[in-house]
Amino acid sequence: MARRISTGKLGRPILGNISVEDSTFGSVIANADVVLEPNGTGVARSTTDFQVDGANALRLADSDNTNYVAFKSPAAVSSNVTWTLPGADGTANYLLATDGSGTLAWASPSLALADDTASGNINVVLTADAGSSFSNAKRSSRLQFAPNSGNLTITGTLTAGTVASTGNITAAGDITSNSDVRLKSNIIGIKDALAKVLKLNGKEYTMNGKDNQIGLLAQEVEEVLPQMVHTANDDMGTKAINYQNMVALLVEAVKELQQEIKGLKGTA
Fold it and tell me: What is the pTM of this model?
């Protein structure tokens, strides 16, 4: 049964320093707080929505009521917004994400980027931090990317481990690899270089839509010189040939061939 708050005195709606008028609780003393303090472990409850008017804040005070954390709405809201909180604590370092309809859920932080195929070059942004942090992000015109063609232009020297490309790599300067004797061990000469070269077969082929390509087949090279073939860690296990190191084999094969020519000349 509904009950009215009353002093028990007819015609007097005042409860101490609290006034009750037109369903509104108000403080009689200016700037005084209105405190709802249930007895013991009781709580102040509402059976309907609770609204803080005037773009004022909902404050959550600390244990000694010295400081607080507050939530408030913007000064102007074009339409009503309701956020439904998740029903669990979530995982460490996860963030609250909305489904676009006001339902919040814990989600792993990630950075979603759209596929950009615009023309012209854009400066590439690099971050010095691990993961998805951009606190030390840098951009430079010396590193540019053309989304429509997929071309990456580097002005300067590129020092890298493994660089994979499905297109062409063009350098205005030299392409070099470390070959310092001080970096090497177990150095021996190449044996039977000419015999190994004779087992290789140059081919003409079409690759990546380009006709009249010339080169070797990685699978054939792997049978003779497995150290010259690199197998990528992809679904197809794509194989690539280290053509640069093939020079050393050709040098020794030419020297062997020259010795054979000298021998033939000596017997002629």
Answer: 0.48
